[in-house]
Amino acid sequence: MSPRSARLARLSRSVTFSACHRLHSKSLSDEENLKLFGKCNNPNGHGHNYKGGKLISILAHGIDPVSGMVMNLTDLKEYMQEAIMEPLDHKNLDKDVPYFSEVVSTTENVAVFIWDNLQKLLPQGILYKVQVQETEQNVVVYKGEETIVK
């Protein structure tokens, strides 16, 4: 490999945010929601520290030969502040975030929301995956896929 060839690297940064939500689908009856979501369907909601909700954004890109970086971490921190912390931290996802007024606020959908927000801010093609850890046991990884062919 010549000295001018770019090497691919993956850069990650994590943030922790706290939010509450209620798992409830408008497409289901109250009884069906309770059966499907159990205690997470509590009418008053429940909360998570998404580190025991950790969010990790991973970027994949060539290492810049001049700066030696995939991306300046200060810039990435600002993008994550705007895309994740401002809309989600210390919020009721279902009541404070318009996206979740029609979308069930599962961790899977939180990951999609974060992916979409980061995609708007980051250079095209650099976002590799978003990982959202809702609890110590539950983690969702989203890589921008839209459908699964069965």
TrEMBL record:
For this UniProt record, the keywords arranged alphabetically read as follows: Lyase, Metal-binding, Tetrahydrobiopterin biosynthesis, Zinc
Q: Which InterPro entries match?
A: 6-PTP_synth/QueD, 6-PTP_synth/QueD_sf, PTPS_Cys_AS, PTPS_His_AS
Q: Which GO terms describe its cellular component?
A: mitochondrion
**Coiled-coil portions:** none
| Source organism, top-level taxon | Eukaryota
Q: In which pathway does it act?
A: Cofactor biosynthesis; tetrahydrobiopterin biosynthesis; tetrahydrobiopterin from 7,8-dihydroneopterin triphosphate: step 1/3
Q: What processes does the entry annotate via GO biological process terms?
A: tetrahydrobiopterin biosynthetic process
Q: Name one Pfam family in it.
A: PTPS
- CC cofactor: Zn(2+)
Q: Which Gene3D superfamilies match?
A: 6-pyruvoyl tetrahydropterin synthase/QueD (3.30.479.10)
- Fetch the PROSITE patterns from UniProt: PTPS_1, PTPS_2
UniProt-recorded Gene Ontology molecular function terms: 6-pyruvoyltetrahydropterin synthase activity; metal ion binding
The catalytic activity of this protein is classed by the Enzyme Commission as 4.2.3.12
CDD domains named in the record: PTPS (cd00470)
Q: What does this protein do?
A: Involved in the biosynthesis of tetrahydrobiopterin, an essential cofactor of aromatic amino acid hydroxylases. Catalyzes the transformation of 7,8-dihydroneopterin triphosphate into 6-pyruvoyl tetrahydropterin.
Q: What family does this chain come from, according to its entry? A: Belongs to the PTPS family.
| Protein name (record) | 6-pyruvoyl tetrahydrobiopterin synthase
Organism per entry: Promerops cafer
